[in-house]
Design goal:
MetI-like fold; 2 domains; flat; mainly alpha
Length: about 325
């Protein structure tokens, strides 16, 4: 007798109504397990967000409830007689100003690069160029800080001097200092380079999702390539481009080391972009003061972190609202 004849016969799979019930039960169990896992993952995000908010409020509460006189006496870097709100206000202003400058510089360049890679560059060039742009996102922020402070800032001085000479009548471009300009405008340029790969990568993928029939219809009607991009590609990818810009804005709002290593800090509400000692951001200020802060000082710094948390939450909420308003142009539709 062969070895195959000695093996026990495998039971036949259940058939009929019993088999159908067992298969349906197995599918239902897998579906419920997947649904529970997905729901738990979504709830974990909400719980984490709530935990961060509670932590910030609890740790910032001592500084928020301390009188201004005691706060200024206990914390050396808070001006005499200044309230916590008066201390946080210039930091919020500097953070928003740096982020807006970075966004204003990065979005047009990133959009142009994304359109070139997706619709203009030859295929042999598009892939390597996209890879090189993506590599910018892998560079640590401290390297950007060293590059911006030691190499870029001195080389930007002629450009800032030209702006002052030709547009100095505008308060934004008042005469810069003669030293390497460690100013908010230089910070904006460095932050723009840092957020460029994020915006470019998202915008490129959105533009590549434009339906081919839309592009061919525009070309068939006699449109040039630019007219096709303007009438078909950009409207289709507008919501995605807004989302990309908001991702870049979130990176710019929270950037620490690059700003800390470049900017000459100050605590004023000033729109003089080429003047040193005028601005400071929340994240850079925390990095600068945290090591030597006493317990009340740590509470004050956490209060500034709470302000940054609220700003970031508001920015993302506004972005979702804008994207929802443009849903007719989204790739999903």
């Amino acid at each position: 007798m062969s070895s195959t004849d000695q093996q026990p016969a495998r039971p036949a799979p259940p058939t009929g109504l019993r088999g159908l019930v067992e298969r349906r039960t197995s599918r239902d169990l897998a579906g419920r397990l997947f649904s529970a896992t997905a729901t738990g993952a979504g709830a974990l995000i909400l719980v984490t967000l709530a935990a961060v908010a509670v932590f910030l409020v609890v740790r910032a509460w001592p500084a928020m409830t301390t009188p201004a006189e005691e706060l200024a006496d206990a914390i050396s870097w808070i001006p005499e007689g200044s309230t916590l709100l008066g201390y946080v206000g210039p930091l919020v202003f500097g953070t928003l100003l740096a982020a807006v400058l970075a966004l204003a510089l990065a979005v047009p360049v990133a959009t142009g690069i994304a359109l070139f890679i997706s619709h203009y560059a030859p295929r042999r060039l598009a892939s390597p160029l996209g890879y090189v742009v993506d590599l910018l996102a892998a560079i640590p922020s401290v390297i950007y800080g060293l590059w911006g402070g030691l190499w870029l800032a001195p080389r930007l001085l002629p450009a800032w001097q030209w702006l002052a000479d030709n547009l100095g009548f505008i308060p934004l471009f008042r005469e810069p200092a003669s030293t390497p300009p460690r100013v908010i405008m230089t910070v904006g340029v460095v932050l723009a380079v840092m957020i460029l790969p994020i915006i470019t990568a998202v915008a490129r993928e959105v533009f590549l999702q434009t339906p081919r029939l839309h592009e061919e219809a525009a070309l068939a009607l006699g449109a040039t390539r630019w007219e096709m991009v303007r009438m078909a590609v950009i409207p289709f990818g507008r919501s995605g481009l807004i989302s990309a810009a908001m991702l870049g804005l979130g990176r710019a709002l929270g950037e620490t080391m690059a700003v800390f290593m470049i900017l000459s800090p100050g605590f004023t509400y000033s729109f003089e972009l080429l003047q040193a000692g005028q601005h400071q951001t929340i994240a850079a200020n925390i990095a600068n003061q945290f090591a030597e802060a006493n317990p009340l000082g740590v509470s004050a710094l956490i209060a500034t972190g709470l302000a940054l948390f609220v700003i970031t939450l508001a920015v993302n909420t506004a972005a979702r609202w804008v994207v929802a308003r443009r849903k007719d142009f989204s790739g999903a539709n």
